Amino acid sequence: MTTRGTLLTAATALVTAVPVAAWGLMGRQDAEGVAPAELDYAYRPLDIADGPAALVGAAALLLGGLAAALLVRASRAGRLDARWWQVLAPLMVAGLVIGVGYRVLTAGVIGANIGAGLTMLFGVPVVAALVAWALVRGVWLAAHRGDGGSGGRGMRVAPHGM
Question: Residue 125, CB half-sphere, CA atoms under 13 Å: how many?
Answer without folding.
Answer: 4
